[in-house]
Amino acid sequence: MTVPSPGVPTWVDLATADLDDAIRFYTALFGWTAEISGDDFGGYTTFQLNGLPVAGAGPLLGEGQPTAWSTYIATTDADAVAARVDAAQGKVLVPAFDVADQGRMAAFLDPAGAPFSVWEAGTMRGAEVYDVPGALTWNELNTRDLSGAMAFYGPVFGWTFRQAFVGGLPYAICERDGVPVAGIQLMVGSGWPDDLPPHWQIYFAVGNCDAAAEHATRIGGRIVHPPTTIPGGRYAVLTDPQGGSFSILHKHR
Known about the structure:
It is a single chain. The chain is an alpha+beta fold. The chain is built from four helices and 16 strands. The chain has helices at about 20-30, 80-85, 145-155, 210-220; strands at about 10-15, 35, 45-50, 50-60, 70-75, 90-100, 105-110, 115-120, 135-145, 160-165, 170-175, 180-185, 200-205, 220-230, 235-240, 245-250. Strand 15 and strand 16 form a beta hairpin. The two termini are about 25 Å apart.
């Protein structure tokens, strides 16, 4: 594979309160295998599908940190992204740093408070399989400020936006060179608890949404939003046993 295109989500990983149980849950749900690193990387685990990396997981790093999935967007210059984030009124949480020879990363908050990261590839390029059952298929920002999000992410990543509607609500499709790379969902209505902060939601592809959601509950997960048909597919929102939120999606081909 070539280095991922700048501005395209390239990796997701889980910070979890119970790494061993997360490995048990996700390998059972998606058929992943787990490659656990040595002490130098704190037991960071790379999940693989048919021998190819699809996602990662590691222990929580700070007291009070919730179990959560993170989205990483590809860049060729993490420091330059940090400067653009600052200029666009975002916050640099973790300045760019090297992860051995694997790459360089930085972590940010957008102006509404949604966390996201960037990955400047070294020997580790990111996920190497997409859009097949068990692999990442979509990344979506959930926010209460759609216009503010577009005003921020446009200059930071060079995205343009195509307006759409999902469930009758405004939705923005983020594009790079005319190719959809992510979405922005407006958090309005009774389905969004007032205390739910803005966040990036990740979607893993499945062959059967209903069966996968059922299987998740049998192995300790929880269904937050039941399987629902939308234009283009059927999705559900789940949590793992530690409360990490993620979605599953069966796309209509």
